[in-house]
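In line with agreed milestones, the collection of sequences with tokenised folds has grown. One record among many is set out beneath this paragraph:
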Amino acid sequence: MNEKVALDDVLSCTNSMITMLNYTIQQANNKSFRDTITNARDSLENLQWQIYLINKEKGYYVPAAPAGQADIEQVKNSIN
């Protein structure tokens, strides 16, 4: 397994765990439990960002170009 595949696997697992924790937070009935899960989710989101930065730095991921103002306006208009 090469480094890119390993980073992709870690990112995929991290994303799945964040999704699971978001669902758990939505269903939580106990404030203390909810706060604990929220903190765990926040930590995973920080890890996700670090993995993104590594992927970008190594050239494994190239972000899309920023949207132009015309594209932004088109999306805004379609939502409204």
Notes: The chain has a mean pLDDT of 94.
